[in-house]
User: What shape does this take?
Amino acid sequence: MKIRISLFFVLFIFLVQMQGSACTIFYASRDGVILAGNNEDWEDPSTKMWFFPPAGNMHGWIKFGFGSGFPQGGMNDQGLFWDATACSYLAMPYSEANKEIYFGPVMQKVIEECGNIEDAQMIFAQYFCEDQYKAQYLVGDSSGHSMIVEGDNIIVNEDSYQVLTNFYQSHPELGGYPCWRFETATEMLSSNDKLTPYFAGSVLSATHQEGRYPSQYSNIYDLKNGLIYLFYYHNYEEFIKIDLIEELKKGYRSYNIPELFSKVKLVYPVDGEEVNSLAVTFRWEGIPGNNYELIYSTISDFSGYISTTEMDHKPDTSAHASLVYLAGFLLLSYLLIKEKKMHYSLIIIMFTMLFHFHCKKEDDNSSSIVEVEEFTKTIADLAPGTTYYWKIIAHPVSGDDFYSETVVRHFKLN
Assistant: This one.
């Protein structure tokens, strides 16, 4: 009986750790700034992006998605953006009776042919596709207009923002509601006075997922300026900045998103720290073998800065810690079995789960199996009473067209 209770408890812990698949999308327009963002949450780590230059009467655009190539989201050269979320089945009697079925992703047709919401509404007035039975779209343009397309319904934005997660706002009774991600994003967007990419990143960070269906990649779109900030695997410290118009000039290309990133996380100095030394040892984590550049300045916009690529290096010990953990667990299991205090099957189950969750402590998905190491660089003779700003620029050894950079941190020397 005790074994059954223990087994039930172990399985219960395993189940509550699992999270359902989900995505979060938002669009916001304020004081001439128009930003959109999304977290793409799913179990597949094979994420990709594609560039499609203009051709004939079709707009150029960027597509994000998975290895299948199906378009999950993107933006065109007119500043028209979209992303989608999965939902429960929704009947579409009006569309079936009055529209033409489009055999293929209807949003690809929209993004290639339309420049604004009015154009997109004309497409949806004429066509529907199979995907709309279990998916909905948030579409926004560069003039401050957005809409949610859910089955037969179009919800036009009448506020300065619009949020979409995994429930139908016209039919919340179909499931997925209430949604903590929707409530979190709505609260943050409604109370914000200044719309910036940093704030948009904070919304994505606050609504990201981990566990079985983690946020594989995230985007911030600056619709008026044609810029995209791409984040990988819910790390909101490192991003790639994409100038869409310039990239489309280079022709059709595709990239595996994980290969573009170095998994950089800033360690020290922490943001806002006061440092009691004129020599500072900067520390950050990243993939070994990639090239890192430390940038620091007394000016927040880095209009004047100092750069160094000569790094000190400190090997990471996480792999050794994992081996110690495993050895300790096996020893404990042996002793318990020897004393007949634990059933064999329960030992196996606990080993599988505990080792599984230990591996998830840092990364919970095969997209993140690459180990990181800690890098350091000591800078001496800094000026007392001065505030410094710093960041890291990372170049993957693969030599791809893109480099990543981190958010900016600052500290003050006493």
